[in-house]
Amino acid sequence: MTEQFISKLFQFLFYLNLILASVLTIFLTTRSLLYATQNHHFHPLQWYPPLFSSTLIAGITAFAWQYATFQCPSATIKAAFWLSPMLTCAVSFLFFSIGSPLSLAGAVIALLSAVAQSLYGCWVNPHFAYAAKILSVSIDIPYAKTTRVVALLLITAMLLSCFLVSGIGGATASRTNLDTLFKALLLITLAWTMHVVKNTIQVSISRITFTQIASNIIIHTHIALRDTINNLMGFVCFGSAVIPFLAVIRGSARAVRLLAGDTDEFMFSCAYCYFNVASTLIRYGNRWGLVQVGVHKKGFVQASTDTWEMFVRMEMVTLIDNDLTGAFCFLCGVAGGSISAISAGSWALAVHDSCALEVSVYAFLMGYFMSRIAMAWPQACVSAYHVAYAEDPQSLQPDSPIPVRLQELQRSQA
Predict the structure, then answer these.
(1) Is 154 exposed, middle or buried (0-12, 13-18, 19+ CB in 10 A)?
(2) 20 to 30 A from 109, CA-CA: which of 3, 117, 142, 176?
(3) pLDDT tens, 168-212?
(4) Where are the alpha helices (DSSP H) in 72-125?
């Protein structure tokens, strides 16, 4: 009952937030256009064309990632792990070219991120083969009209992001403290909305995949999407607000534990404590729980808890921890965001360098979210495949790669 109330509350807050953000965006955009001739800091023709064109590039890149994943999963995984650090490095050079103090700080951050991505790619290289196998098997399921539905949602997300970014541009025009707050609020709305769209796709498609595996029943995508929107949006909105924070905590905990090592006892104990806290939190909120939200109509927390308990019972936690699907989709997003940032930032730098940094950052965010939304389809398939095995190992085909992978991991830990 408590989780039902919380989900309804988050659903109400999400729609209220979207309505208020729309009103604020219309006000800020109208104000900026009316007073454009009196403002020497903001020029609409130098702001909007680069951003709107980068949104189109982001959509094309997102569809390209999705198409490549379904055509050749193995090569696409390798390409994501190679292209993402290279493109992030290119963004770093763009920021260096802008030359402002903030852009130089951003350049250093982007360069460190590129190095970290490269090192991570080298570290997980032995897991590429299994990642390609599990992705190939899980997406090899007939989906009725799924491409049209995902394309429609992606186009909707593109239009929404353009709309909200136009409000951010309007807030940039006056540069007051209040307008800075408006920009922060619109960015939060953008992030939450894009996560809701992505997770709506994940819940809908994971239900289709799971049902096909477990019962050999094909559910049309538009029916699954309609059911999700009508009955499960509260859980989706709640999960969309929680999952990113818990994912960051868990990822940082794993990185800290790896860097701490076991030479310094104090650092090791702190890292171990932080990792245990993160491992406890992930039980109550994780993306695999979205599968049971769609299939069994459970609340998000209950679905996450039940799913993680199944993973523990089937001794799949190590398998899930080593799964590269989430990292693969994330790097597709980073690569897509970098392409958008380079295109918009280069245009803005050539026209008027004072707004190049902001335009680049907002273009990166739009490119990142578009690619993540497009890659929600294959990510949902892999999540549903793992959950279906945890719930009933006999439901999968005899040539499923999961049992073999579990044996390999057990031997490596022995």
Answers:
(1) buried
(2) 176
(3) 888 877 777 788 889 999 999 999 999 999 999 999 999 999 998
(4) 73-98, 101-123
